[in-house]
């Protein structure tokens, strides 16, 4: 078998992983979720969850990837030493396919907005424009175009495709976002927006703690690309001398900076036109923000730069989602990368095309289904790293970690006991709101703790620990 591709440099890995993390989640999802959940209160909660849950969770995925040296199916099978590992890995592969199916539809919308912004095609009637183009045959066409872009990159492999492109696109995203945030500061009537976003409101946080926790936890997972196996796959191409804790910190900080920057653009701009940012929901970017662009001098230029930036960010995330199923076919079945890329892309052309035609299914898939699949995936990673491997996981954490290896034991404790409870808690929040059941903070906490203990016992009896 041919040798596996790998990153040319550790920096290349870090840039590609930040590229995966920083995407529609940061620029499309984060600002409207923040606005909908009280602005600064959500921001504070989200930052705490990134530090407390996101960073240790991402480390778990990296540890499994580098230790397993394969895509999720093979990695988890060899790490656990049983066929259940293959099943869990296959679940990850399905997750990435489901995610990319919806992600590519939104990527198609962004592609279209980038192309039509120079002529301000949606400036007159943004809501109507969005309504007409978001689902239907035209949406299918743009979904296929977006998919073709990412397939062309993955086709060339890890070092020649993904790494090369990420090294250019990701810095471009950061520079463009900084430029747009600086431009936003020069706009009139933005003060209220900054105050809403950055002025800490302890009372609101205390009063709405329970309601904010669920969405903030979900966003922390989504934005760090946790639970899908994409980060596991990226880490499988790493050398043993890379410091996983250091890389994780750099990735989490960079991704957070990118999200916060996006908020510094979107929220003050909406306020400047007197638009309540919480009302926009998922259409915020395409309707509310689009109407802001329409009413600003030079709006067409700014809109074009803005949507082009989002497009670059979406592409670097999309490639990590496509890489996972493609590399699985390569690793597990010896299919050539090129054939695998074409085959998987054809599948996603169909599944994404279906979503672009069925708006209600799209909403279910892009919301609750993805949240559930990512949470289940992450729970499995935590159980494997913290409960089943434990000593091996600590060893892998420490390899190349230098002085940060002192954090290995606290990390494995967190992964074993704290994170599973938080993930189950957020999973419960999704289920209860889906089923219309009201279960308060205490109720959810009790079920999450009990569920974790039960799972721990089941795993211990199955593995004979
Ligand atoms: N982190 C990406 C974003 O914020 O847009 C979404 C994502 C990409 C999630 C890849 C999961 C994944 F595997």
TrEMBL record:
The keyword Transmembrane applies. It is a multi-pass membrane protein. The chain crosses the membrane at residues 7-28, 40-64, 85-115, 135-156, 168-185, 220-237, 249-271, 283-315, 340-362, 369-389, 409-429, 441-462. Keywords: Membrane, Transmembrane, Transmembrane helix, Transport. Signal peptide: none annotated. It is found in: Membrane. The keyword Transcription does not apply. One of its GO terms (cellular component) is membrane. CDD domains: SLC6sbd_Tyt1-Like. This is SNF family Na+-dependent transporter. It comes from Natrinema pellirubrum (strain DSM 15624 / CIP 106293 / JCM 10476 / NCIMB 786 / 157).
């Amino acid at each position: 078998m041919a040798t596996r591709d790998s990153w040319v440099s550790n920096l290349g890995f870090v840039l590609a992983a930040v590229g995966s993390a920083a995407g529609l989640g940061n620029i499309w999802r984060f600002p409207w979720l923040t606005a909908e959940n009280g602005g600064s209160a959500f921001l504070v909660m989200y930052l705490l969850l990134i530090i407390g849950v996101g960073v240790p969770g991402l480390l778990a995925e990296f540890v499994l990837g580098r230790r397993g040296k394969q895509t999720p199916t093979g990695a988890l099978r060899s790490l656990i030493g049983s066929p259940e590992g293959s099943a869990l890995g296959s679940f990850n592969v399905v997750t990435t396919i489901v995610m990319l199916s919806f992600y590519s539809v939104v990527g198609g919308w962004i592609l279209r907005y980038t192309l039509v912004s120079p002529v301000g095609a949606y400036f007159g009637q943004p809501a109507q424009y969005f309504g007409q183009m978001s689902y239907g045959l035209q949406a299918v066409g743009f979904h296929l175009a977006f998919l073709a872009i990412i397939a062309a990159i993955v086709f060339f492999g890890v070092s020649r495709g993904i790494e090369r492109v990420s090294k250019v696109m990701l810095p471009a995203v950061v520079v463009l976002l900084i430029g747009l945030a600086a431009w936003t500061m020069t706009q009139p009537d933005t003060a209220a927006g900054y105050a809403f976003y950055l002025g800490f409101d302890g009372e609101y946080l205390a009063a709405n703690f329970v309601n904010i926790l669920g969405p903030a936890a979900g966003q922390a997972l989504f934005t760090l690309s946790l639970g899908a196996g994409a980060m596991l796959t990226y880490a499988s191409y790493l050398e043993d001398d890379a410091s996983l804790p250091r890389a994780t910190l750099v990735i989490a900080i960079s991704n957070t900076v990118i999200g916060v920057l996006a908020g510094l653009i979107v929220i003050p701009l909406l306020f400047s036109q007197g638009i309540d940012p919480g009302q926009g929901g998922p259409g915020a970017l395409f309707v509310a923000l689009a109407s802001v662009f329409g009413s600003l001098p030079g709006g067409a230029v700014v809109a074009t730069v803005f949507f082009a930036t989002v497009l670059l960010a979406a592409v670097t995330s999309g490639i990590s989602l496509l890489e996972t199923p493609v590399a699985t076919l390569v690793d597990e079945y010896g299919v050539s990368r090129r054939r695998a890329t074409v085959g998987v892309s054809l599948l996603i052309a169909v599944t994404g095309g279906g979503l672009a035609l069925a708006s209600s299914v799209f909403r279910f898939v892009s919301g609750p289904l993805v949240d559930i699949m990512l949470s289940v995936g992450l729970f499995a990673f935590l159980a494997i790293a913290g409960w089943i491997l434990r000593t091996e996981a600590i060893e892998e954490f420490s390899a190349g970690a230098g002085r940060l290896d002192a954090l290995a034991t606290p990390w494995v404790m967190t992964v074993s006991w704290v994170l599973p409870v938080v993930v189950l808690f957020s999973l419960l929040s999704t289920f209860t709101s889906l089923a219309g059941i009201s279960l308060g903070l205490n109720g959810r906490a009790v079920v999450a703790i009990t569920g974790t203990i039960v799972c721990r016992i089941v795993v211990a009896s199955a593995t004979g620990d």
